[in-house]
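Notes continue from the previous slide.

Worked example: a multi-chain complex. Inputs as given:
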Amino acid sequence: MSVIAHADRIQAPPGAAVRRRKSFLRRRSTVAFFMALPLILIVALLVLYPASYAVYLSTLNKTMERFVGFGNFLFLFKRDSFWMVVEQSVIFAVTAVLFKAVIGLVVAHFVHNLPAKGQRKWRGMLLVPWVIPPAMSTLAWLWLFDPSYSAFNWIFAHFGIDPVPWLGNPYWARFAVILVNVWVGAPFFMIMYLAALKSVPDQLYEAAEIDGANWFQKLWYVTLPMMRNIISITVLFSLIVTFANFDIVRVLTNGGPLDQTQVFATWAFRLGIESNDIPLGASVSLFMFPVLAFAAIFILRDINRRGNEA
Amino acid sequence: MRELQSGRRRFMTIAAGLAAAPYVRTSRAAGTLNIGVWDHWVPGANAVFTGLCNEWAAREKVELKIDFITTQGNKLMLTIASEAQAGAGHDVLAMPTFWATGHERHLEPVDDVMATLIKQNGKVVDVVEYLGRQDGRWLAVPATPGSQIKPPCGRIDLFKKHVGLDLTKMYPAGHAPDASLADRWTWDTFATAAEKCRQAGHPFGLGLGQTTDSTDWVGALFAAYGAELVDAKGEIRVRTDAVREVLEFAKRLAHALAPDVSAWDDASNNKWLISGKGALIMNPPSAWAVAKRDAPKVAEQLWTFPSPKGPKGRVQPGLPFYWGIWKFSRNKAAAKSLLTYLSLRPQVEKLVNGSGGFDIPGFSGLRDFGIWSREGPPKGTLYNYPPRSDQIVAIAAAPAPTAIANQIYAQGTLPKMVARYAFGGESLARTLDRTESELEGMMRT
């Protein structure tokens, strides 16, 4: 068999190789690859290289002169302050994503049920918090929560209510950073869910109605199953972004009071840049990478499986 | 034939030009120099700096490029970190507090420059040497722009009315302090004054957050009590009588301060004073300068004067700035020449004047300029801003080795200790345990 193939190659006319090359270049997958190549190169340059460099940095000692392997991670695991940051990051990300998902779903339903004529205006207005750069909008929130001149407290004072230590008390400070994150991120959920709602065929609701389903049953048995993939992807995406959040905490509380609002990114900055221990900062910032990668693989595999079933 | 002649002439002209080129002194004869310096917040200060640099560049035939880099959002610190990592960037870069010692390996020693400057300008103050010199080698040149002290800035009227103390009599402008009043200006008196002002509705505005203003005043308080968290040898010294004593005192003082001080950042204290709410803050004259523009009635009542005295002396929080020359710089000779020029008395005086008296030079012989007597209103309000007589200038966490002190400073360990003990409901033992654990984590190499 191999002899025949070899003979075939020898006897092939000279134009065959050119034709094969042309056909390879004309293949849709080849064209797609070449069209995506600039993006692949940009991603490699701006994402893969820094990520790999961060991994390399996390394996060095404090003065960056010696390879220590997983030494920085083992050091972190023994520090109470690190586990406090882990706990706070989980509370921050999970609570914020949960509220963003619920608020996004409710608001998407409201907008979906608005008359088509005014819907675009509402959609535009509701997207504003997501469109403004978070560092800027958080500054406005900082003025609302300011320890000495809080606008909220000023209003409370008019009603005889005691001022709230928005950023001075650890629990209120956590509430404040989560609130701002929800305010910024909920419109993203809203717009994704709205798109998903619009793709649910009306016939399904009509059939459910004929079967006597109430609004909750329609939501539970029709809407949510049809939106499952979008919900999974949106939650996954938001979880990753929220775990990596830096600007809101940095601007609003700078991790205080008493480090009670520190999250991975702000703690990594404090250790790596401000305390001049770049390898330890890199280790903190990479801690969630395997956890989130693991979650992403499972969620995406589940979505893929459902896609194939469909 | 004419074409041929023309070609030959042109060739001869170019050849002659090329041959003579090395001997022609152009405006770029001494190469190029790229410097990154602190973007001064005082309007006009950058222009004075640029003018001086351009004078030097014209004289030395150097092509000079200046980048003013803000410390807002830690941009200067990020630039330092990224240039150190990349091994490329400016030839000279401004470095605040611990950043020169933190990048010791990447900096060109400047012992030759410092020998000249010490000869000309006098001794370098202790805190400047602590942060600029390692193992007997000078790592960077003390920079005038950005170097500052954070002494108390109080309201003359409120102190007279509620504390019964005339700040202008205790520390007058143009004269020596009133010995008797200055001797009684202790941290204990300070706490009593804070309590009286709080009762009068004008609490002192001293932050207990995790930014530098909070760390600086608490650092001065600890140093005044001789309370070191880590000693010069790198040994943890949390469980000492001095630390216990200062924490007990700080707890008392903290309850006399403005509400929510544990959430304050570096702008909060300024706003507190300028709004007319506060009777005192500890800061460079930036709050006074802004008040002069935005709240002139408040500015007229502000007086800057030295910190109170503790059992171990009168300690002023000081934050020196430096100019470091990277080892990768291609024009170290020009860099050293520029830094020497900028640090000589006539240039330093122009820089201090340009900053409205905000900048405090690091050399002891350069603290007698007229600007501090002239500035007002009220006239002489800054006279006592540069440290004199019995004052010790120190940075929080000193005398710990700088690699450890940097972490204590950046992570706000000192104000966190005070806030935990004063407001967090922690016992003294728990606060000390927690701090000791934090410090152990800072010992890694």
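Summary box: The mean pLDDT of chain A is 88. Chain A has two domains: 15-57, 71-309.
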